What does this fold into?
Amino acid sequence: MKKCLRLRKRKNLYLRLVGSYIFFIFLVGLIFVGTLLELMHITDHFYDEVDYTSLTMEQLGAMQAQIDRIIAISFAMMVLSFLLLAVIFSIVMGRRIRREEREVEAARQKMLADISHDLKTPITVIQGYSKAIVDGMVSEEHMDKYLNTIYQKSNRLADLINEFYQYSRLEHPEFQLTMEPGDLSEYVREYVAGKYEELEVAGYELDVDIPEQPIYMPFDHVELCRVFENIITNTIRHNAPPTTIFVGMEFLREKHQVRIRLGDDGEGIPEEIREHIFEPFVVGDESRNSKHGTGLGLSVAKRVVTAHGGKIRLLPTTETSWSTMYEIILPMNRGNL
It folds into this structure.
């Protein structure tokens, strides 16, 4: 995962370096062309002012020597300008590279710290409870409770590892979607139907608005399901029953796009993290400490949607009556990736 993070950061840095070098070459070209034009202007003006018929050979030679000196001085000034520009460019780019490297290292350290934090809690519980059983400190009366806790924490540990794996897989440069044609309306409808019983048993309510008309388009049937699952799982994790979960879909005919919205009328998302909600490991303190959210689910969702050529955003509260509403825009003419 950290290797993929470094690759992505370095790729962005290299693109900025290439752009800076192109700009540098452009400036050099402007100076060169400007110097040539100025020399042509000076020499033309000089020759226009002179009456050659009245000049001796010595005077013509002196005049030519003066023109040569002007050209030499102009060329030297042009070279000095190039060198000065190169020095300034090297200093600026050196500072930028060092700053980028510090940012990459800081991001790597934060990612490692977050991963260690998320893995440490279930591992600590498993180790403590299993040691208590091995040491014979647990009575038969409490044995089932201890074993059940170990089982739950091991499942949580497996979920965490899976989330980290999915995130690192999407970050890999060779990752590609498996695009297959299908009816997106029916696909979303079947997904909601499959979640209905689970949500109903948990005490949540569903509000669904999916068009009856078929909407045929290519999409990755596995990864798009992961997007819906991550968003709804995030909703359940942060909101208690009887929160209503909304799933809506609309065909934007003029734009040849499909708009999917998933939201809820729960507690909402704190303002301090709304702007960064799709960045990896962005979660509220309560989530990380008590509900064990990794903050990777929405980051994975964004990467999948982006790979489809689409966009995902968290709607401002001024644009919706729901506490939280995610909007996904997918193009219908996206070919195989």
Summary: Confidence is low (pLDDT under 50) at residues 1-7, 285-292. The beta strands are 180-183, 205-209, 216-219, 244-252, 257-264, 311-314, 324-331.
